[in-house]
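Per reviewer request, we include the raw input and output of the structure prediction for the construct analysed in the revised manuscript.
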Amino acid sequence: MNTRNTLLTAVVAVALAAGGFALYQIGMHRGMGQAGAGAATASGSPAAEDPTSSIAAGEAATRRHIKEGIKAGEIDPATGKPVLYYHDPMVPGKRFDAPAKSPFMDMMLVPVYGGAGGDDQGTVTVSPRIQQNLGVRTAEVVEGTLQPMVSAVGSIAWNERDQSVVQARATGYIEKLHVRATLDRVRAGQPFAELYVPEWVAAQEEYLAVKRFAKDDAGLAAAARQRLLLAGMSEAQVARVDAAGTVQPRITLVAPSSGVVAELVAREGMTVSPGMMLARINGLASVWALAELPESQAALVRPGSQVEARSPGVPGAAFRGSVQALLPEVNMTTRTLKARVQFANPSGQLVPGLFVTMQFMDTRAGKALLVPTEAVIQTGRRAVVMVAEEGGRFAPVDVETGLETGGQTEIKRGLKAGQRVVVSSQFLIDSEASLKGVEARLNNQPAPTAANTAQRHSAQGLIESLDRESVTLSHGPIPSVGMGAMTMEFKLPPPNRLPRGLAVGDRVDFEFYVDPTDGPTVTTLTLLPPAAPAAAAPGASR
């Protein structure tokens, strides 16, 4: 009885277990089906998350592509954009044609899409979310006036256009010198030196005698007066002789202008001759400053530009001047040009040799397109800016730059007003654009030619005829190309690849390939020594 009950209990337990397992399997299948349906709905819906918005969204898109059989070069129905390739965001240089798990990381590959109408070579599309994460900032291309600031240093020099000389007009002796040292200041009309001129004594006595005893002879008096002028006397000196009625053997030389005695030759007691320079006077009413300008900034300076100068020797004072000229000479050591600047110096504070710093103003004031300097990528051979387009697209544009100052750069060519350029993270975008451009160029390379891919064949032969474009060879069998012994014509390679001195009757070792269009074409010809008398016939195949 007990055994019977035990068996009955066991059968019931087995039945219950089987029924429970069946219900479990039914439930699991239903749940998995619902989950799969939900996932399919989420993945296949056009409203799915943008695959470019994050790495997670990209991985989800890759899993969907695997399920739907989408590969690179096909249109993703969820986005309407072509899939360019797949890559691992951690290893962006490696690209794949099919969706799969990354061979580098424990993650799925991420698709990279082209534009809605196809791929634009060299352009990059970045989602707004990634732009925010990267901190992408843009600025507008504006039209404005660029005012370059040019600074230079220099030293004060004499105004060479404000010079005068004191000169002797007759032979005489310096009896007294009123100015005795260089750099002494003088005023216009100030006595400079007193000269005794013996030649004037006889001429003056003759003139006075004529005036006294030949009053009625005007011509004789005029001739005597003219002799005084020819002796070197001035009209004022002759007038003093007339007024005094006595001989005036001495003359007082005066300073012709105000300034500083830059050079003094005269000394008391020395003999002077007509035309001899006694002193040189430089004016200080205005001075020059020679500014050293770098070659890159010399083009910004023009004659007439206003200049402001300051000097540590005259603290607190500012001097205004203007550019007189750009001197046509470059210092070979410093690679600088000199600009001559003239300053008014009524107080005489600016003296030659004084160090000054100069600021050039109103160098240029023309309208130009301006962008922030940080937006320009200088590669060494070209200048590039990343232009922001609609839909989160960025395209590199080659530009020609001009002046740069105050954080602004002039754009001469490549942009127009109103466009927006990237001023931060542009190097990341440019790198991606460059990679795409390289890929496009690689994909567009021409197909390999027969000259590069065709099989090469070697043999020996005898030259029967030779010209600039072809050679006729007698050769033996060539098994590699299925050719028997014969005499045939081959096209020649460029002349610079042929050995010199080839002639009819020479034995050569040659290599050729068969071009589907041009036929057999020789690549190399090597001259062989003449065959021995017992040797086989020329042209035997190797």
